[in-house]
């Protein structure tokens, strides 16, 4: 029994999926959700984690770039890193591999992020009271 206890005490558990499954990553699809769903989700992730990683494959790349530009143009985000690559995928089981373009854009909070978010929240409260 002592050997089992010692083995359990010396056991190191590492989460190998942690780097692949970041909490502040948004994988964007251009067919599943509307554009502003992703814009608002990115704002929430930046509030919580101070930065957000937007990721997309193929035709959804244009959507990711649009989301990043909306956030930057509204003064909410600053660009930290952009990575492009290709990934091998199979369209069906046993099918031949195809390459898809991939983009990852990391955005951080701008200096004015918190005050802009507060002002937007106050506008919502003011407008609700005037119904």
Helix and strand layout, with pairings?
Layout: H1 2-9, E1 25-27, H2 35-49, E2 51-57, H3 61-73, E3 77-90, E4 97-109, H4 113-129
Parallel strand pairs: 1-2
Antiparallel strand pairs: 2-4, 3-4
Helix pairs in contact: 2-3
Features:
131 residues; alpha+beta; Translation Initiation Factor IF3; four-stranded mixed sheet; 4 helices; elongated; Alba-like_dom_sf
Offer a quick outline of the entry.
With 131 residues, the protein is of the alpha+beta class. The chain has one domain (21-117): Alba-like domain (Translation Initiation Factor IF3, 2-Layer Sandwich), CATH 3.30.110. Helices cover 40% and strands 28% of the residues.
Could you characterize what this model shows?
- A hairpin with a 6-residue loop joins strand 3 (77-90) and strand 4.
- This protein has helices at 2-9, 35-49, 61-73, 113-129, and strands at 25-27, 51-57, 77-90, 97-109.
- It has a single domain, classed as 2-Layer Sandwich (Translation Initiation Factor IF3).
- The protein has a 4-stranded mixed beta sheet.
- With 131 residues, it is of the alpha+beta class.
- It is built from 4 helices and 4 strands.
- 40% of the residues lie in helices and 28% in strands.
- Residues 24-85 form the DNA/RNA-binding protein Alba-like domain.
- This is DNA/RNA-binding protein Alba-like domain-containing protein.
- InterPro entries: Alba-like_dom_sf, DNA/RNA-bd_Alba-like, UCP030333_Alba.
């Amino acid at each position: 029994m002592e050997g089992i206890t010692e083995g359990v005490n010396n056991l190191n558990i590492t989460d190998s999926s942690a780097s692949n499954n970041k909490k502040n990553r948004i994988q964007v699809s251009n067919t599943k959700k509307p554009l502003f769903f992703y814009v608002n989700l990115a704002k929430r992730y930046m509030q919580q984690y101070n930065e957000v990683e937007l990721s997309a494959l193929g035709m959804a790349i244009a959507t990711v770039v649009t989301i990043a530009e909306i956030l930057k143009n509204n003064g909410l985000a600053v660009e930290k890193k952009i990575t492009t690559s290709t990934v091998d995928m199979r369209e069906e089981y046993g099918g031949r591999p195809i390459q898809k373009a991939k983009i990852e854009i990391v955005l951080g909070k701008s200096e004015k992020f918190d005050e802009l978010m507060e002002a937007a929240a106050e506008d919502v409260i003011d407008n609700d009271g005037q119904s």
